[in-house]
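User: Round two. Same drill as before: sequence, then structure, for each protein.

Assistant: Same drill it is. First protein:
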Amino acid sequence: MIAKLTAINLMIKSRLGEATATARAVFAVAMLGFLSVCPILITRIIQQSWLMALLNLVLIGVFLVIAFNVLRNRYLATSRHVMGIMLILGITSTTIIGDTASAYWLYPGFVATFFLFKPKIAVLLSFSVCITVYPFLSELLASTDLLTLYATLMPTIVFIYYSSRALRKQHEQLMSMASQDYLTQTGNRRAFNAKAEICIRQRNKQDFHSVLILFDMDHFKRLNDTHGHVVGDAVLKDVTNIVTHCLRSTDRLFRLGGEEFAIIVQNAMLKDAVAISEKIRETLVSKRNIDLPPYTVSFGVAALNKNETVNSWMERTDLALYQSKQNGRDQVSIAK
């Protein structure tokens, strides 16, 4: 028994270690909800309050299903929204059916609502709950107690709303900084790895095809040494601007480091990516900034195979890029 519990604990730690911060937070909220409702369920059963006990049992089941789905890395967005809806229904029902003490569940319930939904949706849901439960609370509470409850609930909701907006904006800024290259404003190596992993999962589970294009500047070190790093940076920006305009809306450009770039072409076959590479190569020659030193670019292209890793996909594409360099540069080579 102890060995099984230990194995389950290790499995949970392993799955959560691979999960995103949002997934871990949703799992934590689900388990906290489960642990919070369990003693209340026992109390309701002892009191023979069967309707409330049934409601608590449903909430426990929802929390466990959500936690399980997070561990399976499935339906994260859906799980978050389902949990939010169940939370709203739960605190509304508890306040309506329960006693005067049940109103205290509104405060933590509204805080959790802002975590599970976008601020505008959360504030609408919170005010809707306040309006819905008002007639029932007016029969349970004295007028002064009811006034005090709503006088504290309303500013609490407003405060959480503005705090949630500020935190969400800061989070988006931090995520952008963590996944964006400072010089070219393209995705960085971290963003590339994340996108590549998504492509691998789609290839293995849904048979979606993706192709990787690697390219870098020919003789870029010589260009930097001759004209300086300021000119070199301007060339990288020029390349980024031209390449971006050659891509489809579904394609993504990344700077992996130095003068090396990657493009992930999703939902496309190898011939499509080769055509995109040739288009970029030709456009760089014809539309480059004439105030900058002339430059060329070499390409390697590889379609993603089933059950392939990011490293293997990169290695095959890099070998194709190396072949372009060996064959005289300024050309496109296809990986085997």
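Second protein:
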Amino acid sequence: MAIGDLRGRSRNHHNRRERRGDRHYHVRVWWWGRACSTIAAASVLILAACGSGGEDGAVESVGVSSLDVAGGRLNALPSGPLFMRINHFTQAAAAQIGSKKHQPGFVYQIAGSQMMIIGADSATVSAGEGYFVPGIEHTHTNSGSTSNDWLFVALWPTDIRTQPNVSTAQVVFESEDIAPSTLQAGAYAETLQVVTIQPGGHTNVRTRSGLQVLFVLDGSLRARTDNATTVLGSNSGTYLAPNTRYQEIAADQKPVKLLDFIVTPVGQPFEQVAPAF
């Protein structure tokens, strides 16, 4: 398996979350072609359940499925304030984008395909797939006969805001600045999921130990936190600080499909169930 590759792990079954930090979520992440086995705490799942009531009054997920499309590891975060950005790219057939070393992050292929050369490795990324790109030089080549569309999702130092963006990129989401005090020192695991919520469906109410961005690819999402309820349409997103209590709810009469980008301190719970709102 090539650098950073983790493909197509579908989740769509019953699961009840551990509510305390004494059990650990488990996530398989890849970097430098090897599997790292744990983020310390139970599994990277957002999963579908049949009922709406759980233990101690918690709300279970209904009509939700998720797919782990990629994962990777950051041995350390950049110094200073950070922010999360999503760039959108469109490439004509056979067009190539060369990239120098920059922050690690994820490619998510919306349409078409691309061939990536990452150091001495290569990978083909097709529509609906993700790929973790480590911080080394690489290229993106449209390997199809028609134009493609893809996103690059990453955590960046804030001084990047003042620098020119890649000429072929369009910024479709940026978070607020994230203060260094929000983040602990040490290694982090990055996870990219595709989540689908059916009409009338919703996730459980939960918290996550890491930074998180929800970005809607198609449909309409209601993101509920203690402070606000935000309705997000296609190509819009929201940032969630660590340990935010939140719930994702389908806001329309058609399925909503979104990316869930999570940056979790290694050794901390990935996710814990929270009391209902």
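The domain at 10-26+45-76+188-273 is CATH 2.60.120.10 (Jelly Rolls).

User: Perfect.
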